[in-house]
Specification:
- By secondary structure, this protein is α/β, with parallel strands linked by helices.
- The protein folds into 2 domains: 177 residues, Leucine Dehydrogenase, chain A, domain 1 (Rossmann fold, 3-Layer(aba) Sandwich); 148 residues, 3-Layer(aba) Sandwich (Rossmann fold).
- The chain contains 14 helices and 12 strands.
- A 7-stranded mixed sheet has the order 9-8-7-6-10-11-12.
- Helix 6 packs across helix 13.
- The chain is globular, with a radius of gyration of 21 Å.
- The model has no long low-confidence stretch (mean pLDDT 96).
Length: 425
């Protein structure tokens, strides 16, 4: 049946898009999804490609390529991050937008999925260059975004300052402050308490539910975290607070390993001061590839997509994978992990803490009333653990893996919305 569906247009045809699409197709086939809805969900609703000319500090003008993709808006305005990275392309952004649609549907948010990005290397750009890049990009995608239309947020290579520039640029065009146009912004202009840590905190909330469900004690459990940005560093810190021994972490350059356990607070301070793990005295240097294959209880891939592949899936020595990154596991690797009995929590569930608290931030901006941090963390715990346990029980009842169970639950909610709304015109 899959073969007779529309083929993927070449502009979206990338490895990441094919992986996400294959997961969608497998779940859609399993649930006998209405063929017309199936065809619709395989492609984004809207995609915008923009050129972003920026005057660099040297005086030269460099033209960057930017994108904003809205995958589906049947449940509400679209929502999704903006990433700055040299590997950004339209296919990757479209795949991540599709994942956002599924993620929001799975955890019950009134959002569709979107994603944006600019092909650049922010590490090589000054603050002034980044600000000019962000403001011009925001201007170019202005027709698509808005608090009732499409709400950007931080992603790889962006942060709360980038969101502040986006919010200000949009507000200048409207003539008044519009804090609800983005989430993940500084608290002083309408950001939410708990937002910065939300994705990593959510990863740990899910991890603790996994251990409880599988009968694994936190005491004596070990964890490896690939990626030490906002998600990975926060996840490592909270895993330690739960009594789990973090034995390995890495950034884009290299990693650190210590079987006796790493001092995560010390690692965070060292990375902040040195911008690298090179020379860290509390452990031995290890490559990113070797880090993934360390014996451990829990592996948290929190870097980029496509890290667990057919080439290394057979060498992984973890019991549980909790995906902090978007699409870190390829379709072929997924099959190997299932055969080996490794329990994997997919990205659309495991890393949904960020968009859940982004939703809380958006609600607070719209109603102009802000909550205490404990309220936000409690609400996050309730939403993400409820979603996890629903998927876990569905997975056990239907004897399917967690990824397919997550996809099926998300697809069912989307299908209901599409069917009841109908087709216009």
């Amino acid at each position: 049946m899959i073969e007779t569906l529309q083929s993927v247009p070449p502009e979206f045809d990338t490895p990441t898009y094919r992986d996400v699409l294959s997961q969608l197709d497998a779940a859609a086939e399993w649930v006998h999804l209405d063929r017309n809805i199936w065809k619709r969900l395989r492609l984004p609703q809207r995609a915008l490609c923009v050129t972003v000319p920026v005057r660099m500090d040297s005086g030269d003008v460099h033209v960057f390529q930017g994108f904003r993709v809205q995958h589906d808006s049947s449940l509400g305005p679209t929502k999704g991050g903006v990433r700055y990275h040299p590997a950004v392309d339209l296919g990757e952004v479209a795949a991540l937008a599709m994942n956002m649609t599924l993620k929001c549907a799975l955890v019950g948010l009134p959002y569709g999925g979107a994603k944006g990005g600019i092909r650049c290397n922010p590490k090589n750009m000054s603050r002034g260059e980044l600000q000019r890049l962000t403001r011009r990009y925001t201007t170019e995608i202005l027709p698509l975004i808005g608090p009732d239309h499409d709400i950007p947020a931080p992603d790889v290579g962006t942060n709360d300052q980038v969101m502040a520039w986006m919010m200000d640029t949009y507000s200048q065009q409207r003539g008044y402050a519009v804090p609800g146009v983005v989430t993940g912004k500084p608290i002083c202009i309408g950001g939410s308490l708990g937002r910065e840590e939300a994705t990593g905190r959510g990863v740990v909330y899910v991890t603790m539910e996994v251990l409880r469900r599988l009968g694994i004690k936190a005491e004596g459990a070990t964890a490896v975290v690939q990626g030490f940005g906002n998600v990975g560093s926060v996840a490592a810190r909270f895993l330690t607070s739960q009594g789990i021994r973090v034995i390995g972490v890495s950034d884009s350059a290299c990693g650190v390993y210590n079987n006796r356990g790493l001092n995560v607070a010390d690692l965070i301070s060292y990375k902040k001061a040195k911008h690298t793990f090179e020379g860290y005295p509390g452990g031995e240097r290890i490559t990113n590839e070797a880090l993934l294959e360390l014996p451990c209880t829990i592996l948290v891939p929190a870097a980029l997509s496509g890290q667990i592949t057919e080439d290394n899936a057979n060498r992984l020595q973890c019991r549980v994978i909790v995906e902090g990154a978007n699409s870190p596991t390829t379709r072929g690797a997924d099959e190997i992990l299932k055969e080996r009995g490794i329990f994997a929590v997919p990205d659309i569930l495991a890393n949904s803490g960020g968009v859940i608290v982004s939703y809380f931030e958006w609600v607070q901006d719209l109603q102009k009333y802000f909550w205490k941090e404990k309220e936000i963390n409690d609400k996050l715990h309730e939403v993400i653990t409820t979603a996890f346990n629903k998927v876990f029980e569905f997975s056990a009842t239907e004897n399917i893996d967690m990824r397919r169970a997550s996809m099926v639950n998300a697809i069912k909610r989307l299908a209901d919305a599409h069917l009841v709304r109908g087709l216009y015109p």
